[in-house]
Amino acid sequence: MTRAGQGAGERPRGERWRAPYATDPALTRGRLIPEAVSPTRSDFQRDRDRIIHSSAFRRLKHKTQVFVHHEGDHYRTRLTHTLEVSQIARALARALGLDEDLAEALALSHDLGHTCFGHTGEDTLDACMATHGGFDHNAQALRIVTRLERRYAGFDGLNLAWETLEGLVKHNGPLLEPDGRPTPRWAERGIPAAILEYDALNGLELARFAGPEAQAAALADDIAYDSHDLDDGLRAGLFDLADLTEVPFLRDVLDEIDRHYPNLEASRRIHELARRVITRFVEDVIAESTRRIAVLNPDSVADIRAAKAPVIAFSDAIARADAEIKTFLFARMYRHPGVLAVRAKANVIVADLFARFTAEPGAMPEEWSAGLEGAEAGRVARRVADYIAGMTDTYAALAHKRLFATTPDLHWSPNSRGLPLTEP
Fold first, then answer.
1. 3-state secondary structure of 34
2. 146/160 Cα distance (integer angstroms)
3. pLDDT per position as a tens digit, 394-405
4. Among 17, 60, 183, 230, which has the minimal tally of Cβ within 10 Å of its Cβ?
5. Are the beta carbons of 397 and 407 closer than 8 angstroms?
6. Stretch 150-164: mean pLDDT, rounded?
7. Helix (H, G, I), strand (E, B), or coil: what is residue 343?
């Protein structure tokens, strides 16, 4: 079947081959605010471009991944992490016949809601917002792309396609059980209000899985941060290559490297480890997903959404390796005394800013404080959380210095091995 104005064998607007179970932009459920169709780009290509050109995306350059922004130019930031996720998501999508542009858009947008100072900022804001619905970076990403970006003449947010919003919200799986109860992740605290409010406006089918492109982007996120946190942690001296033998999967990879390249210098051995972790994980996802697709035999993306389990997935063996790597990193990197010391100082900055701005909204820039005079506490708190969440590490520290007599010193120099990071 061909589309009007196209001959057999032609592909619309530069698109690649797409499997029957992939998400087809020609069949999109559309945008909340209708827009004219682009003559040169699919809806998902337009979404990708809008995300890249957003203010929130640019701010990822100076937002923490693990190390704060000034600890070294070679450590990952939210932006470099996001680009790595995007590359892996595209590779998975191409191999499995999915829509690459949608997978890329979801990878590029998945961290837009993260705060300054990484998970420290999120944890602190969540505690500050405990009586006002809490704070969740995934819900914040939805707020950004549907409300907080104010660049377009015809709408607030980015007016993304339904499939992009669905994938952004549900890339980690359904939020509701079939009977309407929150899934275990949300059972105690409840689904964030921002998600429920948007779902009421433009239903996201919260009890169903997202499309395959969102599932691929979620796994790309896992693959990227497993590999690059190992790389960063090794280069920072938080643990040694010998320590990685605690993880059977990593021990096997290191043994393989040593067999092929005995006496390899440390910097190259680290890079070989990171690239082989990515390769093994990506190849596993392709093989396991191909197997699951064959069993399900889906005729459309609706079959993927209606499945009882993710269709794009790790095998049991690699899922176990992924969990073991994360356990190692949690103990040896995220809970390293040096990292925790900086986290404690960052917590002070975020908590102080929240307290000052909620007590004195006028201390925020006018575009953020406008309309808050006499507003109820919940509205003020949410506006303050939106403002702080959008801050980069640098901006948050400078804002604190402007408002307080003393500001915690976030500088910390890991015991870098002095490994060559660029060509001589």
1. coil
2. 8
3. 999 999 999 999
4. 17
5. yes
6. 96
7. helix
